[in-house]
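Contributing new complexes? Match this layout with protoporphyrin IX containing FE.
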Amino acid sequence: MAEGKPFATPHRDRFLLLVSTPEQIEELAVESTRKHSKLSSQGIMVDTLNPEFTLNAKKEDPAGFIAPNLLKHKIRKHLSSMYLPMRWTVEDAFRKEMKGKPLGDGWSRVPLCYVANRITARMNNLLLVGENLASNPTFFESSIQFVTDATITLAFFNHIPKILYRPISFMTMNWSGGRSKAKSLLMSEISKRRSESSEEQGLYKDCMQWVIESSRDKSTEYIARQLLSLTLGGAHQQPMFAAFVLYNLCLHSEYIETLRAEIHTIRDNEFDKLNNGTPYLDSFLREVGRLNPLTNIALPRKVMSPFTFADGTYVPKHNWICVPHTPLMTLPNAYSNPETFQGFRFVDTEGNRSTSRFWDMSREFPFWGNPKTGCPARYFVSLNMKMMAIHFLESYDFRVAKQAIRPTFSYHVLEMPHPLLAIEIRARKPEA
Ligand code: HEM
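Output block (do not edit by hand):
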């Protein structure tokens, strides 16, 4: 509707300036990746996660000191060695969490968001803190509680003046004890690892170890806070997306046969086959992301000092610049029938090659953020979501529950699955 012209929309105490032409998105992406850029993703993190209150971080602390590109490199490099523990975690997570109210004839009604939240938390913990701590039930429950407390706190912040942030967060972040319990378990594990030899430490392939290595002289408490920050960041989009994937599998039963047949071809489930040899599943995930982009803005950057685009558009300090998510994901010249769900639209006509992988980034698919950098965890998320979808397809019959609610729920910039969304499942009989 803006015909490519930038426009600003008020959002709490700032404006969001939305740009959408290829040239201005390129300018935004290039400026964001420049050293000492005027535009900051860290600034967005501080504005949205309020680490001073949710993490008890000092005001002058950087929001994260593990560089996203180092994280991306480490995750990609170690993904194949994390593959088996990831599979066991998915199986274990489904066994423990995929439960609901019995309906008779083997079916039960499952609260989708609750279950997706707990399954993905188990998977994230494996990446963040490794097998030992991730399998500790006290750590799991306290990390979930911490994320819940922080989400409630941040929701309060949307409705109260800044002067009340400290007293409110003091109550909401301390009442349950989730944060302090999770932090103390993180600190014990960090101290234990720091006392081990470099050979022993070399065996850990998780974010905790990479943060320890890149922090050297930082205190144990500071490292634990970084891991809490990653826990909070990682708990944001993945559960919402997982819920949308499971919901869309229930909704679009016409794709199930092909997806199950594809899974059959990777029966032995080798890492490389799953990572690179499932074009139909890759496409299905990408299509779910295209029509459920989770946020209605993408690539947000905070203006740290006044920024002027080449066309003269001037953006004062403190505001955010971003791109509109859904309009780009439904551009008619990039996607035919853009409003229609076509689960296999990213598979070539012979059906054996992906034309775009789920983790690929572009202007017309800003799901992973800046096309030049993007989410450092996207290879992990992609593998995770495939494993989760495969386990679901193989282990259950499923259908959408009858409900008089919209499947999505809008809150500020979020377009999330409706918190009351439910599906119905039944254990699948093993094939003869
Ligand atoms: C469906 C799931 C996810 C989506 C859609 C997603 C999306 C994004 C996006 C859009 C960005 C901003 C990138 C940019 O504009 O440059 C980002 C950054 C990031 N994500 Fe993800 N993400 C997901 C899951 C995760 C998980 C599970 C983790 C970690 C466990 C994670 C860790 C990070 C980190 C560390 C950053 C960098 C923040 C910075 O710039 O400092 N993400 N993600």
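Reviewers usually confirm one structural detail per submission. For this one: The mean pLDDT is 93.
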